[in-house]
Amino acid sequence: MRGVLLAGGLSLIFTLIGTRVAITVLARHGFGQLIREDGPVSHQTKRGTPTMGGLVIVLASTIGYFLAKLLTGNGPTWSAILLLFLYVGLGTVGFLDDFIKIYKQRNLGLRSKAKFIGQTVIAVVFGFLALWPQLEDSRGMTPGSSAVSFIRDLGWLNLPMWLGVVFIVVLIAGASNAVNLTDGLDGLATGASTMVFGAYTLVNIWQNNQSCEIKPGPACYEVRDPLDLAVVAAAITGACFGFLWWNASPAQIFMGDTGSLALGGALAGFAILTRTEILLALLGGLFVLQTLSVILQVGFFKATKGRRLFRMAPLHHHFELLGWAEVTVTIRFWILAGLFVATGLGVFYAEWVAGT
Fold first, then answer.
1. CB-CB contact of 76 with 7 (8 Å)
2. Number of domains into which the chain is organized
3. Is 106 helix (H, G, I), strand (E, B) or coil?
4. To 10 degrees, what angle do helices 226-247 and 2-28 make?
5. Residue 246 burial (CB count, 10 A)
6. Would 323 be classed as within a structural domain?
7. Known binding site: residues?
8. Can you name the residues that pair with 221 across neighbouring β-strands?
9. For the chain, how long is the longest CA-to-CA vector?
10. Alpha-helix residue ranges (DSSP H) falling in the chain
11. 28 inside domain
12. How distant is the alpha carbon of residue 127 from its chain centre?
């Protein structure tokens, strides 16, 4: 537990200080946000606001994790290493996308094909290693599982290894792009991510306390390295919290794709490694709504030959164009995110109670 507190506290401090430094450095070098011409008119005032702030989140949480492990005298586990690989890897893809946007002064960074290939390669490597038999622990458990899971593995939905990797890749792509779509208002994605990562900190601590290795029983959890995953979750939660200080309206810095792809990938990583893949859709319900709004908008537009279901997608822009102030949309969406997280945690605990 000391590691969890240390990782969260150190990451929080690192981002509070590091983001202030990043704002100055990025502004000095002209690394400012480009704004879509077809977006809400009020967003044009944000043009030039420093972006790529997700770099601070990724660095602060990664350093915070390893410092916490060093100070507590514990080594990292394979589960944590794999999760950080996914987190940093997708953050790197996002960084390249952001950098190209700024360098070429266009709202399109990496070509869609190159971005897709980058995300896919990282997700495939993560998925393969998560299921690789060579990484089994003394109990014969790999970090991930080829079975689709809700709160535990669904034994009747056990996939062949290759299909398990495909499922993992799809989940990672969906989660990373969902957070990316949500990152459109000051503090919206950061605040929502803080809540979900905070929830995964609690889930991992609970899974550790009720681990089948410690407390065998009908409701115990067959999850590998849950306490170390809690340390990673706490580190990312603290980093998001610290970044929110500067990213809240009016934002002095944006996370960019560097942050949104990394955070979305990490959420999928936690769902995979904690055997809560379907539960993620509830804990991250706000991200699901945002993605569905885009899918419905595109589908409706094509089916009706030009008509729109929403004034603009993702969903937060629809409410802006209805006349809601940006901060109102953000706070109400935070409330929705909190309700989804609370419901998800309630379902998680209720399942344990029902099983005891």
1. no
2. 1
3. coil
4. 30
5. 22
6. no
7. 180, 257
8. 211
9. 62
10. 2-28, 54-72, 78-104, 112-131, 161-182, 188-209, 226-247, 256-273, 280-283, 285-303, 315-321, 326-355
11. yes
12. 17
* Lookup result for tokens 């901060």: 327
**Which sign, positive or negative, has the C-alpha torsion 73, 75, 77, 81?**
positive
With a CB cutoff of 8 Å and minimum separation 6, the contacts of 230 are: 4, 200, 201, 204, 205, 208
In angstroms, the CA 193 to CA 45 distance is 25
| DSSP one-letter code for 250 | S
Residue 70 identity (one-letter amino acid): L
Domain that holds residue 89: 2-284
Name the token pair of 288: 């699901």
Q: Could you tell me which residues are beta bridge partners of residue 211?
A: 221
Residue 291 lies in a domain: no
Provide the residue-wise pLDDT of the chain in tens; the chain has 356 residues.
889 999 999 999 999 999 999 999 888 876 655 555 545 544 545 556 888 899 999 999 999 999 999 999 898 999 999 999 999 999 999 999 888 877 766 556 677 788 889 999 999 999 999 999 998 887 888 999 999 999 999 988 889 999 999 999 999 999 999 999 999 899 999 999 999 999 999 999 999 999 888 888 888 899 999 999 999 999 999 999 999 999 998 889 999 999 999 999 999 999 999 999 999 999 999 999 999 999 999 998 888 888 888 888 899 999 988 989 999 999 999 999 999 999 999 999 999 888 76
Token look-up 């709004």 returns 293
Task: Enter the DSSP assignment of 252.
Answer: S
In one-letter notation, the amino acid at residue 324 is W
Which residue is it, tokens 């605040």?
A: 191
Residue with tokens 């998800």: 344
Ordered DSSP codes for 283-337: HTHHHHHHHHHHHHHHHHHHHTTS--SSSSSSHHHHHHHTT--HHHHHHHHHHHH
Distance CA 205, CA 210 (A): 9
Q: Are 32 and 47 contacting, i.e. CB atoms less than 8 angstroms apart?
A: yes
Q: Which amino acids are annotated as binding site for Mg(2+), given as ranges?
A: 180, 257
319 in a structural domain: no
